[in-house]
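Exercise: predict the fold of this chain.
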Amino acid sequence: MNSIKRTARVAGLLYLLMGLTAAFSIVYIPSVFIVAGDATATANRIKAAESLYRIGIASDFIAQIIFIFLVLTLYHLLKGVNKRHALLMVTLVIVSVPMSFVNMLNQTAPLIVLSGADFLSVFDQHQLQALAMTFLRLRSHGIAAVSTFWGLWLFPFGILVIRSGFIPRVIGFLLFVAGFAYLASAFTSLLLPRYAHIVNRYALILEVAELPIIFWLLICGAKDQSLDDHAPDRAIA
């Protein structure tokens, strides 16, 4: 049977895989390679472990592909609750993914800048290292911009969860908390960068509110019934 429980567990697995690959690229890789305020040390780390750095780029790429399949699976799971909210959820994700792909160029650029290619001989070593660090800074700002959509998509998702009847309502409200945290972090980084490190510290804690939906979908699934028998679309006028 094409059940809600099975679809929910597929969504949970995709969500978990996306979270792991994204965290590896966005959190772990920068912590290994970037030395704050030291372009030379950062460049040396990238050249010393280029394979790991490339794995980080590939991990980001895979995370975005999984994100697409995740939101389509969630759409299949929740479209019967409210189709307009489900479409909005998908749209916000689909907008964010190309932005993330473009931002990957900033992560790839240091490999080119530090490659020692002949056409870069007009720059001295310190200039190349500074340029590599500049691209990494641009990637950081790009992530801040994309994370506005990582927050926004959680609002229609949260509404759908609350109204679904087969996922605990509290998980939907937790998605709102995580959504506000992403937005607070993004807009502070873009508009008030002086305070970004303070806001990001607390936002990261609140973003953990996104985790319960992953484990609920993966472990508990949902009340087992045919998706075809699910309640009809309850669109809001």
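Check your answer against the key: Residues 228-237 have pLDDT under 50 and may be disordered.
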